[in-house]
Records
---
Amino acid sequence: MNSGTPSSSAGAPGSAESAAPRRNSKRPKYSRFTQQELPACKPILTPKWVISAFLLVSVVFIPIGVVSLFASRDVVEIIDRYETECIPLDSRNNKTGFMWSNADKTCNRIITVTKHMKQPIYVYYQLDNFYQNHRRYVKSRSDQQLRNPGNERDISTCSPEDTTPEGLPIVPCGLIAWSMFNDTYSLSRNNQQLGINKRGISWQSDRDRKFGKGVFPKNFQNGTAPGGAKLNESIPLSEQEDLIVWMRTAALPTFRKLYGKIEVDLQAGDVINVTLQNNYNTYNFNGKKKLVLSTTSWLGGKNDFMGIAYLTVGGLCFCLAMGFMLIYLIKPRQLGDPSYLSWNRNPGGH
Amino acid sequence: MDSNSQNEINESSQVHDFVHKSLSNRSISSSKNSGGHSLREVNFAELASKPVRHGSRGADSEGFSSSYKEMNDDDARIIHINDPVKSNEKFEFAGNSIRTGKYSILTFLPRNLFEQFHRVAYIYFLVIAILNQLPQLAVFGRGASIMPLAFVLVITAIKDLYEDYRRHRSDKIENNRLAWVLINDEFQHIRWKYIRVGEIIKVSANETLPCDMVLLSTSDSTGVAYVQTTNLDGESNLKTRYAKQETQVSHPESKMISGLIKCDKPNRNIYGFQANMVVDGKRISLGPSNIILRGCELKNTDWALGVAVYAGRETKAMLNNSGAPSKRSRLETLMNREIFFLSVFLVLLCVVVSVCHGLWLRRHKGDLDLMPFYRKSDYSGGKVEDYNYYGMGREILFVFLMSVIVFQIMIPISLYISMELVRVGQAFFMIRDDQMYDETTNSRFQCRALNINEDLGQIKYVFSDKTGTLTENKMEFQCASIGGVDYSNGKECVEDGHIGYPVQGGEQVLRPKMKVKVDQELLDLSKRKNLEEGRNVRDFFIALAACNTIVPLTVETQDPAVRLIDYQGESPDEQALVYAAAAYGFTLIERTSGHIVIDIQGERQRFDVLGLHEFDSDRKRMSVILGCPDKTIKLFVKGADTSMFHVIDKSINSNTIKATESHLQSYSSIGLRTLVVASKELSPILFEQWQSSYESASTALMGRAALLRKVATNIERHLSILGASAIEDKLQQGVPQAVKSLRKAGIKVWVLTGDKQETAVSIGYSSKLLTSKMTQIVINNNSKESCRKSLQDALLMCKKLGTDSLAAEINQLALIIDGTSLVYILDTDLEEQLFEFASRCNVVLCCRVAPLQKAGIVALIKNRTDDMTLAIGDGANDVSMIQMADVGIGISGQEGRQAVMASDFAMGQFRFLVPLLLVHGHWNYQRMSYMILYNFYRNAVFVLVLFWYVLFTSFTLTTAITDWSSVLYSIVYTGFPTVIVGILDKNLSRDSLLKYPQLYGAGQRQENYNKRLFWLTMLDTIWQSVAAFFVPLLSYWGSSVDGSSLGDLWTIAVVIMVNMHLAMDIIRWSWITHAAIWGSVISTFVSVMIIDLVPLLPGYWSFFNIAKTELFWMCVLGVVIGALLPRFVIKVVVQYCRPNDIQIAREMEKYGNSRRDSQLEMNQIFDPPSR
């Protein structure tokens, strides 16, 4: 920018130039760019364009909405909330005390299948009111440690679950791993065990590259504070799929996590016996626990929101298209009519 | 001044009689001209205003007289001539090496950082980055939190470094130039940087001066040196400087005198210098005409010797080397108000979060230790301690601080950087604009201030200087009245130089550089030596050729047989007169201090210059005493009509005088500048008397200037009139059209000039400022009471004429006020009334105003209204006004660089104001306003999305969006398109804007940026953030989605939404815009992918997992459409049902061509046809 350092420093050497005849003109070189005349498209919202845009949106959105609503309706979902029912009646006043005791936590639930469910049927556990996105919680993990056996002592981010009282590093460290969900489900139909496949419930990428094949649990759940699940110390982390699923912290305080898959169809009317170990303590913060069996669609689980939202927006756009058509018909205005310019409308005043 | 002429409020039709009455006792009678306006000679007190043109010389005489004041030793610097050691021993004067570079290698880092942190925004940045380093508050990773600040600092530092490097380089070149310096009685070639104060320096012709030096001696026996000061003040004419006779030597190598100079401390006044020199026990006073300054070039003088008095950074050139003033644009001021709202909003968000967190903590007080996701206690250390929990109070405070960190970009820091980039870009285009390049001075538009580009779109008042701004300041001889006969039928030279007299100079033909129109009758007459009229005419032209300080220079041309005579002098009027004389065959060929040679129609004649009284602002005339070849001694005087008629003997030639007076009146009424020429023959006795008194006066030690003036007034008496000359101060090209456009754009143009009222009024007419339909109100008073009365009358009349806009359109008012009246009005209680009245006038002309009054008038408007003011001028007398106005524009023309140095923008011609304001100003304003609002929206929408999420994390400021995305958001994801749009988008084409100047009103009415728009934008922001946040939230509610995946969805959705929002508002889509918008969307995808490719981050691979699902893409589509729908609908409704002018003009650009003919007149012409 020749914003003008005037100065003799600029001027004096320049005097040699200025002495030379003025043929080195400073006239700016002409180009469409510097004159701001680049070819450009100047779209204007003409009635035609506006109405077509609204119609286009409604044409796209309404079918999508209908399809996704149908997809959501097709999903069969069975939810069984069990956290209260699974406490013996006499212990319900002191649920936490019960959970801390050594009493048998086995609990039997009966689920009736209402509609035909095609395999694969996903088994989820759902926790409500569990803030897996709490700042203290999400930070309390060590990805280095999980990945690399050499980084066992990389536990600075893991407190308060970083070391045992003796100072030995915990693998996997941190609150997340410590609080791992440990209810177990076994399902049977007509006294026949329904196999739950627990392989492949976590992300391939996590198993391959995030959780080390050579990293084994160490000193885990040895502390004074009782946490959640214990891990088999002979299995590397990359194969501890429940841990891997749990470590993918949920975005919202109500969340499901995949427990396993049932790979047979369930018929309407089937009665399923669930034997569960109610080990996980959510009673001290009113957390709900639910067992969910659900099929899936291209849209995911059962959720009508998307369909309704799309239908609403599509419908609205259709109405708007109609509305604008009316406006254009009732109050036509020729575009670019100079008589609408303010100084032509009310002559005399600016 | 007679009282009957005071206080006139006339409608133009009545003016005539009145004026005639009031003029009856005055020397110049009013002449009628067709337009019906009339002129009055006004007797004014000579205020502080000096005639513009002679500013530098006026200063001369001032310095001259004041240099006799005894200088206090403490305030002076003492220089021993030719003794640098002694000169420097007591005070170490600065050496001659200069350093315009700011930094050295060592100081660069600390100094640059220090300077950068002068901005509050950066400190905010820094404080937040520091807060984030505290372990309790660490929200972002360390790298992520420092990166944006570091980025900005590094970019700015690199820019500074480059600029500084360039300065260092030019310094080096400058410092290593060579000069001849007297060392041990021998001239040696040494580098400039080693020159010391006190050394004697020899400068040869065409060399540049290395430092400020007092002239000691020159090759001219009388001690004259000619210098060109182009580098210093841009004036290309030659100036004369004098060496004192006492130090004058005939040969540079001759024995040098020694002596002592006592002079001012270094100061930046180019035109002021006072000093005493003691040589051989004699005290000699020195003034500004004895010093030549660094950066000047020696011309026409073989050599000059001088003693260095100021060197290096203490030279006047360097002291004047200040940067552009810093102003803050209106938009930025308004923006800061909105930023305050945003900070309140930010604090509000933080308070909500921290209070909610406090409540949550209280509710779960007993459970905190048992909650698996909180776990207050730390058991690992053996002893049970609280882990990262400091009690409720502190927890709340920490959450508050953390939320400040997380929501920091609510205050759009990136906006400041984008604004700077955008301004640089806009400046680039303004500088490169073809239509603002001035061919004649070969100068481009200059942006000296980089932070008020957008103010150009909101100007309501333009204050313009006249001479050199509206006019070219190139004088052209138009007509003459000689002996009571008017010769004004000049014809352009038809044949190439055959009219007029080519002069034989040796084998070569000499020809004046400029051609002048010649009146054939007058030319014929001038050849008749024998007639009485012929003699009169000859005397007249000899007076024109001789009575001046012009120096003729000969210049080679391509044709070796022809050489051009270039007349150099300080006054363009004189130049014009000498060229005119040359055209009639009275060619000034040579001037030394002792004699001049005039080629009179082929015959070379030598005149001895026996005496010369220079022009001064009291006498307002100059005179020369010539010893003519026929042994007579003649006095020729030329000067302003007012001063001349006092000294002309009215008894001789009374008819001629009357005729001349009427001619003068008619000349000045058509805007010509007039001078009266008179002469008288001096008898030898009279001459001797004069000579003795002149000599005693010029050697006087005390009050020399006053004595000389007295001598002059004594001799300049009882003159007989020769005639009068009229010079046209040509209007610059395109001024009337420019004024018309500006007026149509709703800009009020006021002219503030130091010139006479007649001249000002006539220029007003010729530039279409004044029209015959206007009601002129003239205020010329010289007492406060009469001023008060005039103003009251004027206001009354204003009311009578009606106040509604329709009446204002018909009864246009013009106020003409002079400097004397302003003395009584400005800074008194009358100011308010003047303002009230002036703001109702369509045109205001202020004549005879002093520089400070110019600033006062600007302040009158600036302090009382919110309207933006712009001042445009070219001379040193406009500096104060340029600095006072919101936007100052310097015309880089004839009058030097002072105005340009003080200005924010500089350009070559007045008419460039039209493209500058109407086109660039309009664009800049529209772009910048949109960019500010968009940036507010863009950052707030992101912060709100973060905020909504915080509500679902038990208020603990977890962000689903990764740290890096938060940091990159305003730089990489959304930064580029705003800058590109801010630089390139145009709402209307140049043609439409120039065709309908009324479109400029959008900026004056602040249509593109105001509180209403801000709050509407904020409402829109809230809706959009709700849509962007809750659509994904509800779609994924209760599903097994993990935080990182949902975070990626939010990132992508918000970025696309924000970019589509921008896309929706872009008016012109060129390939660059496309690249920026789609490029930043793509770069967002790429960045998110890269972030998710790091296995050590919790979000590893989540984008790839979630992007596989249809739901993801449906969410993105739904967010974008849903969020932008309300905005789109409102936009369509407003554009269709309540279109503003800009919208209509846009439509016309696209569809209007076909029906242009059939429609009604698109723009009314307010100005009736010219007179």
---
Amino acid sequence: MSATFVGMPPFPAAAREKLADAQLRRNLAHATSTIRARRAALVAEVEASVDGGWEALRVAGAEAKDTALRSLDRQLLRLEETLTANGATVHWARDAAQANAIVAALVRAHGADEVIKVKSMVTQEIGLNEALAAEGIAAWETDLAELIVQLGDDLPSHILVPAIHRNRAEIREIFLRAMGEVGRGAPADLTDAPAVLAAAAREHLREKFLRARVGVSGANFAVAETGTLVVVESEGNGRMCLTLPEVLISVVGIEKVVATWDDLDPLLRLLPRSSTGERMNPYTSMWSGVTPGDGPREVHVVLLDNGRTRALADEVGRQALRCIRCSACLNVCPVYERTGGHAYGSVYPGPIGAILNPLLRGVGHSDQIDALPYASTLCGACFEACPVRIDIPRILVDQRAKIVDAHRGGLPTPEAVAMRTAATGLGSARRLAGGERFTRLGLWFARRVGAPAWTSARDLPPAPAESFRRWWKRTDGGRR
Amino acid sequence: MFGRRRTAQTDEHGQTEADGLEPAVNAREQILADIRTALSGGSGPAGSAPAVSGPAPAPGTAAPSSPASGGPAFSSASRPVARRHTVDDLIALFAERVADYRATVTHSPTASLSDAVAAALPAGASVIVAADLTVAVPGALVDDGTSGAADLDRIDAVVTGARVAIAETGTLVLDHGPGQGRRAITLVPDRHICIVRADQIVADVPDALAQLAPSVRAGRPLTWISGPSATSDIELSRVEGVHGPRTLIVIIAT
Ligand code: SF4
């Protein structure tokens, strides 16, 4: 985030633009502080009521995920076996193109031209909606926030509250303008009261739920032992998508597998408290293949790699595959709170996005990805918040080293030297303050004198007129 | 691979093949091979690959102190559990936590459940129940599995039992077995009246999972319900009732 890290244009440039948006910053500050407070109260409650307290739950959650990751090949084979025995059909996809092709073929095979979707990060990751649109298949997002994002022709900015960057007046505008174009329009007397807006969404989506023949979901967990998929949600749109259509297709990242039914225990206690700050989310659906006379008659599961085996091969970074997408790390991140999710340029924003994107896609080939591990002050708040104890700061530092290596042609480059200087500078807050000013100088110097090998690979960003720390001090961390 | 357009076909077994290029069966073998390579690579002991959660950082220590590898091994037996409750505690705690979600909680002796249900229904409401519900609901439609979603959308309320209830989190879990009906009947109507026997209430999630294991092994779907449908997507204001039933009434039978 701070100008300390030179030569990382995309995040800094995008962040600067977002920092100028005072409305966005207010929405984010309100949202993240609200969720943080709720979560803190529940963590305190667990401290008092559970042996070993919150930390014991975190350790158990991390261990449940690690157990599956350590034997991932065996767990996936077991999952395939149990799902198949339960009447589901299992497909495997190495990448986004394969997964999208599988889903599109299944939808077409049933003669459908639309699907209803429950919020799923993995289908965003693979660009499923766009791929289906290219095949003439409409994909309707049914989560309220996703609906706001889709109708607003917008991008999600938070894992859990994707429309966190929109306030109620903007949402009313979007509903009035766009709902009628794709189905039942919003009532003309729509106000901006949240309950009224939610009621409009209920009416708008209900006609789609009642007629849909194909549903598409992700899964929060997949239990190898029992062949059970789990979707955790709030609004009931997930239950609609998982229950009413004749055909259900779930795209599941291979890291979602847990070995046993009992492994769900710590995870189901950690996830809602860490994400929405609730003891339990309103609805959790679990299904094990096809149940005769109840729900979809055909159940498909697409097991997706798309970079996960690459991440698994990274000995430091593989722990990121424990992530249960709770978004607690976003809500405590000082950088995220001020820039919002869009600046990360990915469906996975915030601290987890800063490590997951380079781990899934590799470093050294995209300036956009290579910039992400620098979108952090290494303050450590994300690790403290993470319910499955992912050591995000350690992975960030490790990824930075790998990025430097990827760009070094055998010799230390000016960039590597700068990185080492930066690493030293991070050692103390006072040195950091000095380092920022030094960076302005360094950038000016680099531009004047030139660092050819480096600038040919990178866009040299203009040095910000104000350093991060000075900006922070002047604005009280963006609050003024 | 991104952006490469491909067509795919589904054969009679429902297996999909990406046209010409890598067939799905190869995707499976390749993913499994990539996993084995990833897990065997590197200097760490084979099979112990993912960084294992280490000891807790001392309070006040910032995170970059990396968790040491090779932390303690935990079996499910050593999972953290809730401290013990008495039965009266559990009923009171469950009632309090359900009410926290702005659901309505009432208590009724088992003998007069019919009256308690009638009191929870607005006059003239149309009602659906599962065929094997043991509580009499006069005038209710008994579900025979033929009503489609659009039919259910015209029904005002549903009355069911539950499989287990969780005090700590105020959660009802349906396994859609006897008295609970198929999933759609508790989803589409706008009012859900759920009857829980006091002896079905357990302390916390691990106890519930233990009770539910036989249902899952029998292939039953489960629906966990904690209060009425809700969203906080608009400026984080909690709004009850988006797509699921907007009114949830829990009757605790004692
Ligand atoms: S990294 Fe941890 S805190 Fe962040 S989303 Fe994943 S599980 Fe949650």
